[in-house]
Amino acid sequence: xxxxLKQKLTKKEIDEGVIPQNQVLVEMLYSSEGLKSKGGILxxxxxxxxxxxxxxxxxxxxxxxxxxxxxxxxxxxxxxxDPASMPWDCDMDLEIGSLVWFNSIESYNAVEIECEGRHxxxxxxxxxxxxxxxxxxxxxxxxxxxxxxxxxTSHELAIDDKKEDKTRGRIAFVGKPNRxxxxxxxxxxxxxxxxxxxxxxxxxxxxxxxxxxYLAQFDGDNLYNVIQRRRIGLVVKRG
Length: 239
Description:
Blueprint: E1 5-8, H1 11-16, E2 23-27, H2 58-62, E3 66-71, E4 88-89, E5 99-102, H3 104-108, E6 111-115, E7 118-124, E8 128-133, E9 136-139, E10 143-152, E11 162-174, E12 180-181, E13 197-200, E14 207-208, E15 225-228, E16 232-237
Parallel strand pairs: 1-6
Antiparallel strand pairs: 2-3, 2-7, 3-5, 4-12, 5-8, 6-7, 8-9, 10-11, 10-15, 11-13, 13-16, 14-15
């Protein structure tokens, strides 16, 4: 994993500078160095710790994945045949000051800016999953958040009697679909509602918005799976 690129700028340079199209400048509100759980347990670590398998890595658990929007691009750019374009056509639904949650790997590899003791990162808009303005949740880029679904296990040696079913979820937060994709075979599932029990397309990657409940900041101790609308194959039960 590449190290985060760091630049030192003045506040004037940041405020008067122009950020790239399709990128968002966010101010980091916390650091994993010395990070403590909600119970006061120290869980932070040196940034030199190696990023191991994402399913078990402590590094992946505590990487900074939420921040506050500081500056927005003049516009989002989408064009079907341009590799510099967004991969899909969607609205700019962020506002200055909003809190945002985003992809952990993009955060770890982002350009980082230091300014007067404050830390900023450039995050691609396409890798931001959702935003909060007060208590309002705004889903971005065609993403939805799903409650995990569990099935009972009858294995006599099982420590826990339930196991997560990674093939389905129950929709907790949903926003607007994307209008168009660069790939013709990508189409969003439009008719989705909060409470729907849905089945994901085969081999769809799903991942946690936040990995550990004792560090979660989005919605108390609740953990959610992130998936795009286009990867949902079927609504099996309306909420």
